[in-house]
Amino acid sequence: MTVSRVLRNRGDVSQATRDRVLEAAKTLGYVPNKIAGALASQRVNLVAVIIPSLSNMVFPEVMMGINEVLDETPLQPVVGVTNYDPQREEKVLYEMLSWRPSGVIIAGLEHSDAAKSMLKAAGIPVVEIMDTDGEAIDACVGISHRRAGRKMAKAILKAGYKNIGFLGTKMPLDHRARKRFEGFTEVLAKEGIEISDREFYEGGSALAKGREMTEVMLERTPELDFMYYSNDMIGAGGLLYCLDQGINVPGQIGLAGFNGVELLDGLPRQLATMDACRKEIGRAAAQIIADRSGESGDTGGGERIELSPKIAAGQTLKRR
Amino acid sequence: MTVSRVLRNRGDVSQATRDRVLEAAKTLGYVPNKIAGALASQRVNLVAVIIPSLSNMVFPEVMMGINEVLDETPLQPVVGVTNYDPQREEKVLYEMLSWRPSGVIIAGLEHSDAAKSMLKAAGIPVVEIMDTDGEAIDACVGISHRRAGRKMAKAILKAGYKNIGFLGTKMPLDHRARKRFEGFTEVLAKEGIEISDREFYEGGSALAKGREMTEVMLERTPELDFMYYSNDMIGAGGLLYCLDQGINVPGQIGLAGFNGVELLDGLPRQLATMDACRKEIGRAAAQIIADRSGESGDTGGGERIELSPKIAAGQTLKRR
DNA sequence: CTGAAAGCGCTAACAC
DNA sequence: GTGTTAGCGCTTTCAG
């Protein structure tokens, strides 16, 4: 009835009745039931956001970007965490889709077949984020991790380093880290160079792991003159370790990480890194959903935004 | 009809029909509509989680605790972020309640009157987390930040420090930081000691800010022999700064932070801190909601769990 | 064990 | 401008 109209600021209602309704609503402590509303209107202002983890700052930062633009709209994000587990991803996705959200933002391009079918069948905007190396179901915004790996390899070679070590996570399911690694070794291979040593970790404090791994690797392969870390946190650990040991960085050994986390600003020396454009990705993805959910005929589709991460050479990647 | 029964594994359905239904559901790619289900059953398996921020690791860690226990139940968390803004908190809360969740987990004990009324009127379990210094609406799990501040002050005094500086965030709305500060100065006052200097920051990289603030303060008040940081990140920045400057820690100056973040493990020296029991808080809060949402008559109510944070004295808070 | 029927609290379309 | 009506897609209750 009329009440519904005023509560949603729709069309013709006289000021008098409007006031009366608002008054009543307030005194009764009335909170509309969105479930009923959604069912009736076939519209749910929720955006499903599916990410692998909350345990490092990267996804929370993406969330912040998403929040920023969704705040300007009636849309609300609902997040689900998969722990890098395809099974869980499938389940979380199913749960979310059963709420008939206005769109979904999901990390990565790799999903189980079932997940892909659900996404395709959902008939809502789907934005796959963080990665552009592969085929998207619908829209896609991110960076090319393969290209990022290549770019860093080139910069390192150009700076004159030759004996390069790689340190990363032991995560077969972190496809983005894997792609960076592939791009990285690819460029090295072209120059006839192979990774001199490599080390992988899982669990624990990344900073501490970075220290440990660096120690182990330097002991095992003393001729190393560069270490490429698959994320800034272990890179920072490595940097702190080197400084502790009185190792000249980058004189004796150069270092680089990946992500461009804010944390690096406070380190004794600025670690070379590459900005993964996390907030920007969140913002762009949310924008796509917001734009499309406004339209009627789902005009858009298949948007593809590839951001280009830039190297922040810091002080740990200098020409020798 | 029957279909509904098999999809929910309810009561008496013959294996034959069950199979037939499952079969049909699969081939049709049927995903049940939870909105309709929720409306009909008056049951929504969502738990609203309202937190101030995602920008440091503390709340993501609480989330992980919540996820852990909710994963074992049909309940699903939905998070809302307030940016420490009571206005936003009110709005976010309103939005969430309009989905009629099974419970709400909300950070802090300080809310606007409107927010409090909504929470009281909602008729669902409400767990206020992180803080126990004040009056809870319903259940409450956290630590006493006032007590935490007092405890740290005692430890510092006992270790023989006299000229103490405080460094924290410029956040009038971070009640927990404020309470820690109050507890801290209270104990000092009892011993006839006043904070020698203080400094507050906002925005930017906490690690970098920690460095800057430490530098500024040491210049301004050279007689300081201890610095108490309101979080570990700025504490870590301070520690790195001191080490850079060749300042003997804790010989010349002692340091302590707050939170017990994992990051500290990788630092050149272990910063003294106090574990805020974040994951544990998340777990306990989720458990309360889970337990109560199982019962019919909302048996429980008013649970109050106060965890006691322990000092991890690290290497930067040693008897002089 | 299975079907039919009556809502859940709203929105949308249509009268008044 | 305002009231009325018919569903939205399920769950629930009650008959068969």
What is the CATH C level class of the largest domain in chain A, in words?
Answer: Alpha Beta
Provide the gyration radius of chain A in Å.
Answer: 24 Å
Largest interface: pair, residues per side: A-B, 51 and 53 residues
For the sheet with most strands of chain A, the description reads: 6 strands, parallel
Which oligomerization state do the chains in this entry correspond to?
A: homodimer
The proportion of residues in beta strands of chain A is 15-25%
Tally of helical segments of chain A: 11
Alpha-beta content class of chain A? alpha/beta
Helix content of chain A: 40-55%
Region (Disordered) (chains A, B): 292-320
Keywords (chains A, B): DNA-binding, Transcription, Transcription regulation
Protein name (chains A, B): Substrate-binding domain-containing protein
GO molecular function (chains A, B): DNA-binding transcription factor activity; transcription cis-regulatory region binding
